[in-house]
Amino acid sequence: MEHQSATPAPAGLVSFAVACFTFFGIYGGFVDGPGALPLLACWLLGAFVIQFIVALRELDHGALLGGNVFLYFSGFFCLATVFSLLTKTIFPSQLGIALDVRIEGFAWLPCTLALILWTPAYFKTANGCMGALVAITDVALVALTLKDLGLVSGPTVSALIAYPLLIAGSIAVYVSAALQLNGAFGRTVLKLPPPIIRDKANSQ
């Protein structure tokens, strides 16, 4: 019997949603930031493991765009953030070191620019939900980058980080459910719209 390999993308989308929802809790002011950081690091470590596996599998199956996005999300958005959160928790209190978090803004900058520049590729090749997810995430990352660079601040900026991430995470859960249910039932249970950018011949 021929072995068929399944995509782990639904699990990757759920792990992305975990990151989005937890950051929504932080930047939305629903949890105590300093007290929640070590616990957030634990959940992001789990997200890193899943997204790294997804990235390798997607790349192995020739998914250039999705594989690379999951790969750098796993490394920077998850694993690097784990160590960043733990550093912010341990170093100031234990070693008396004043951290200049603006360096994180410079680190977020290429990640944000890359995702923005890659977004049209999602518009062309992925379903409409994924295109919207990435575009909404762009908004949150721009606000996060500017905030960490120290260029903007205040509750409005935090809201521009929190609520787009909540929406993006919700879309990710929906897409993961659509992939699972549509595959299990062999028909469209949850609809996934076509790509935002379509060939003229296919859009008529």
Q: Can you give a write-up of this model?
A:
The protein is mainly alpha-helical and 204 residues long. It contains 7 helices and no strands. It has helices spanning 9-27, 33-60, 64-95, 102-125, 128-148, 155-185, 200-203. The radius of gyration is 18 Å and the shape is globular. The termini are far apart.
TL;DR?
This protein is mainly alpha-helical.
Instruction: Tell me the series of helices and strands, N- to C-terminal.
Output: HHHHHHH
What's the story with the biggest beta sheet? none
SS-based class: mainly alpha
- Indicate the mean pLDDT: 92
Low-confidence stretches: none
Any idea what the radius of gyration is? 18 Å
User: N- to C-terminal separation?
Assistant: 41 Å
| Relative strand content | under 5%
Shape: globular
Query: What is the share of helical residues?
Result: over 70%
Question: What is the overall number of helices?
Answer: 7
What's the total number of strands? 0
Question: Secondary structure elements and their pairing?
Answer:
Elements: H1 9-27, H2 33-60, H3 64-95, H4 102-125, H5 128-148, H6 155-185, H7 200-203
Helix pairs in contact: 1-2, 1-6, 2-3, 3-4, 4-5, 5-6
Keywords:
mainly alpha; about 80% helix; about 200 residues
